[in-house]
Amino acid sequence: MAAVGTLSRFVRLSSFVGKSRRLIFNRIQRRGIASCIDPSLGLTDEQKEFQKVAFDFAANEMAPHMAEWDEKEIFPVECMRKAAQLGFGGIYTQPEVGGSGLSRLDTSVIFEALSTGCVSTTAYISIHNMCNWMIDTFGNTEQRERYCPDLCTMDKLASYCLTEPGAGSDAASLLTTAQLKGDHYVLNGSKAFISGGGDTDVYVVMCRTGGKGAKGISCVVVEKGTPGLGFGKKEKKVGWNSQPTRAVIFEDCAVPVTNRLGAEGQGFSIAMKGLNGGRINIASCSLGAAHACVQLARDHLCVRKQFGEPLSSNQFLQFKLAEMATKLVASRLLVREAAHALQENRPDAVALCSMAKLFATDECFTICNQALQMHGGYGYLKDYAVQQFVRDIRVHQILEGTNEVMRLIIARDLLMDS
Ligand SMILES: Cc1cc2nc3c(=O)[nH]c(=O)nc-3n(C[C@H](O)[C@H](O)[C@H](O)COP(=O)(O)OP(=O)(O)OC[C@H]3O[C@@H](n4cnc5c(N)ncnc54)[C@H](O)[C@@H]3O)c2cc1C
């Protein structure tokens, strides 16, 4: 029932989300979406409605600004708060704490659509959603009521803090300590590469309260302004420039024990459960980029003439375009299957989320890169959106577990009983 209530909000809002599509989206709309890559195929009427809301938001509120946000490294907080008004700040957070209560598949559909307007901003929104879900799922009533409503409206923004300078792929070796002193944990250590770091309000931090390994890790929420919480310089990045990335530093940072999510020692499990959904989300962001790039490439091939005819007459390029479309649809099918598996808590869910992240982020990067190639020299110019999609999705092969780590997880699942 909650989801239906939420949906009617989406439907209502869709009527006043602007009609005009600009920039690259003008061209997409004029030519229409080829039915074989139509992302609405197979969706319910309700899903098509909020997919449309997300596409419209991407076209009107994000796409016109994505180049400027990238160039000037602007974190578009107001735009994200507008997205939150549509229910996108807590898409799979429960309605009783302000979330939309939608499914993992619904979430994937929304992030795919939003990413066509700006991958980097959507990817940050996806991390924020992951943190919101972690607090909603593993927090007690007091914690959920304290944090989730403001996260759902994006009045407060969240960051996920797992990686450390010496603990990347081997995240369970993290060294940030949380020493129990009275009714507080005193945190010392540092986190690396934290998305939103410095500009966000709520830090979901994995830290060591016990011995070595995964079982010694707990998860605590640290609020901005807590004495002893500091930040490194803003990193200069290849892409994902509309969101800041900084080190997060703890120096005798005292956090109430009541800020711990779940039990002591449960932190690594909470972190990994968050990432299962995070991997579907980030793969969905790659789908959106690839979807946009296939259409940009198709438009360019139809318009650009060489050797006296449109590039679209060239069979080599036709075949390449066909391969791109096939990879896109195959990626989308796998991502949506993983979303189903996670929603239903199936035993194959963890491996499928890893497969989806591995396959979709690799294939979608290839698609976007091929689209850039089809643009020739123009593809290398910042006037053309295709280069930004390439730059923005490259990091999806690295974060939320590298694609090598995805292979480790899949292989572990395959060999488990042998
Ligand atoms: C822009 C950006 C944003 C990020 N945001 C966040 C965030 O918000 N929160 C957060 O916690 N982290 C974040 N990260 C960190 C990210 O998750 C890590 O960079 C990633 O997990 C890899 O860790 P590493 O960089 O230390 O690489 P390493 O672990 O040093 O790996 C280097 C290379 O070796 C490979 N490798 C390592 N071990 C193996 C193995 N056993 N078998 C095969 N290959 C292996 C890796 O796959 C990789 O290719 C972000 C990173 C970036 C770049």
CATH architecture of the largest domain: Orthogonal Bundle
Spell out the helices and strands N to C. HHHHHHHHEEEEEEEEHEEHHHH
Cα end-to-end separation:
44 Å
Unreliable residue runs: 1-30
What spatial form do the alpha-carbon principal axes imply?
A: globular
Small molecules (ligands, ions, cofactors) in the structure: flavin-adenine dinucleotide
* Order of the strands making up the biggest sheet: 1-4-5-8
Number of helices: 13
- Tell me what portion of residues adopts beta-strand conformation: 5-15%
CATH superfamily of the largest domain: Acyl-CoA dehydrogenase/oxidase, N-terminal domain
CATH class categorisation of the largest domain: Mainly Alpha
Question: What's the domain count?
Answer: 3
Secondary-structure-based class equals alpha+beta
Which structural traits does this protein have?
single chain, Butyryl-Coa Dehydrogenase, subunit A, domain 1, Butyryl-CoA Dehydrogenase, subunit A, domain 3, four-stranded antiparallel sheet, 13 helices, globular, disordered N terminus, transit peptide, flavoprotein, EC 1.3.8.5, Isobutyryl-CoA dehydrogenase, mitochondrial, AcylCo_DH/oxidase_C
Short note summarizing the structure:
By secondary structure, the protein is of the alpha+beta class. It folds into three domains: 2-152, Acyl-CoA dehydrogenase/oxidase, N-terminal domain (Butyryl-Coa Dehydrogenase, subunit A, domain 1), CATH 1.10.540; 158-267, Butyryl-CoA Dehydrogenase, subunit A, domain 2; 269-415, Butyryl-CoA Dehydrogenase, subunit A, domain 3. It is 51% helix and 13% strand.
